[in-house]
Amino acid sequence: MFELANLIRPNIRAMQPYSSARDEFQGEARVMLDANENSLGSAGPELFNRYPDPHQRAVKAALAKLKGVAPEQIFLGNGSDEAIDLLVRLTCRPAQEDSILILPPTYGMYEVAANLNDVRLERVPLTPEFQLSADAVKQIIASEAKLVFICSPNNPTGNLLHAEAIEQVLRNFRGLVVVDEAYADFAAAPSWTTRLAEFPNLVVLQTFSKAWGLAGLRLGMAFASPDIIGYLNKIKPPYNVSEATQQHALAALADAPHFEQMRQELLEGRTWLLEQLPGLPIVAQLFPSDANFLLVRFRPEATAVYDYLLGKGIVVRNRTSQPGCAGTLRLTVGTPAENEQLVAALREYAA
Ligand SMILES: *Cc1c(COP(=O)(O)O)cnc(C)c1O
Fold it and tell me: What's the rounded Cα separation, in Å, for the pair 286 and 270?
């Protein structure tokens, strides 16, 4: 059975977290001489001389409202990539002692985080339709891995994984179940954040890098039980989300209509590409997408198409070497003009 304390590395359970100046004193004093900041001001055009809120209270309050969770169920990181690394480090002893489970083809950072932390990697491949087979679910449930990364909608394939299979994993796997929803805003399915109360082993990852259009800002979210979030807070660098990022995220959250308008436009772009691409003779297979990209299988030779597009100044992602993805390129939905350029170039190649 799932028992959180058994999954946390003993040294992390035992250690004292860093106590920052901003942990020991919160609020505004007239004279702030506790953190070795520069009271005179900042070089550069804007004032950033004070350390940021290490718990990002204002951003979490706004996010809690938007996502229908409690602030204590939210962790914020320097991109969701930081949350991925912290989740691996939280649960897995290094020196190949413990393992994580991934479901290829999937997002590359899980494997990098495992390698970086000297943690074993177990691979349970998805089916040719990029779903979890009944046998795969059995393998996951039987595994001793400390956590499994389930990317849904999956990168680079674009599809949602069937909810029933994920639910079986949540009910029976002993480790943490991390559902990476970087592309949830483009998906026609409820977020797994709506199921947090049911599953104490569930961690949901989301990001400001995709639908919010803030990849350069570096802000990722993890949603989980207050106990799991407490452990992530215990091991994070104290000031992992900058003041500039916190201010900008608050402004973005207050600008929800712009987010929604861009989201709709990207969904329309996806629909348009889905209509255009099947008509091209070099397109052999188009995979269903709940994300802001399409995985496309080209014939006779995807890498030749990739090089040809590059020559036209259009860069896409070559996924031909990923398991189950032979002959495929991953095409991000762009502006309407960019989508038209892409299709025009592909049509010309075909001719
Ligand atoms: C893009 C992406 C992320 C986002 O990572 P950030 O560090 O938040 O930019 C996370 N997971 C997947 C599957 C992605 O494709």
Answer: 12
